[in-house]
Amino acid sequence: MQRFDGRVVVITGGGSGIGLATARRLASEGAKVVIADIDADAGKAAADEVGGEFVATDVTSEEQVEALFQTAVDRFGSLDVAFNNAGISPPEDDSILTTGLDAWQKVQQVNLTSVYLCCKHAIPHMRRQGKGSIVNTASFVAVMGAATSQISYTASKGGVLAMTRELGVQFAREGIRVNALCPGPVNTPLLRELFAKDPERAARRLVHVPLGRFAEPEEIAAAVAFLASDDASFITASQFLVDGGISGAYVTPL
Ligand SMILES: NC(=O)c1ccc[n+]([C@@H]2O[C@H](COP(=O)([O-])OP(=O)(O)OC[C@H]3O[C@@H](n4cnc5c(N)ncnc54)[C@H](O)[C@@H]3O)[C@@H](O)[C@H]2O)c1
């Protein structure tokens, strides 16, 4: 499949995890990939690997986000896909009883304000072209509650979901699709390390996943590739769950 032949894709948080897997997937389908990341080493390595361009970007800075999309257009001539994916989940964001205002605001800035900024500065380019596809990374926690709370993270992802829905509706007739990707828990190095140390913690979560395991980043990337491509031409304003069945489950298989 070469669904992205000649298309220009910007991926925030493209240096690691889901962003990196998506960069690989879209590049393999012909995309010209622009990686934006605050981590210059990881971002540059990713861009080199996929034959793309790295733009050092802190997604909480309006100036840098505006420059990112302008750079993509200047360098490659269009902006076809924006995968607004950078996000954090720091340990100090925990129960509402213990999470301070600083931690709350930091997570809101990186996870929610960044998506507002990226959409704000991607959409004008797409309107000019009369087409474009935006995928914003939310999470399954945007649609269900966890007793193991990360209060600001969850609220930020709920915000991403609501904002995405509204933008999808507002710009639908201008040829711009906007969808929210809601991954379930992904098998990342951090998660593996955490659960190796604490198997009970892993078991408490895995019991809720009908498929009985966490997602691989490549499985999330495959969903992004679908949503971002013309195969999803009738899908907009959606909450696209890639969660191994978690959000549909009551009793899981033994
Ligand atoms: N991993 C999971 O289980 C999971 C589940 C659901 C949703 N998500 C979401 O998926 C997205 C990607 O997560 P991941 O697991 O691949 O994480 P990751 O930590 O592997 O990658 C995130 C990338 O974002 C970059 N980043 C962080 N702050 C930034 C900033 N201010 N400006 C620019 N770049 C910044 C990091 O340097 C890193 O390269 C996040 O939005 C996360 O909330 C992850």
From TrEMBL:
Pfam families reported for this sequence: adh_short_C2
Signal sequence residues: none
Protein name: 3-oxoacyl-ACP reductase
Database matches in Gene3D superfamilies: NAD(P)-binding Rossmann-like Domain
Species of the source: Amycolatopsis deserti
Keyword tags: Oxidoreductase
Family annotation (SUPFAM superfamilies): NAD(P)-binding Rossmann-fold domains (SSF51735)
Similarity section: Belongs to the short-chain dehydrogenases/reductases (SDR) family.
InterPro entries: NAD(P)-bd_dom_sf, SDR_fam
Keyword Oxidoreductase: yes
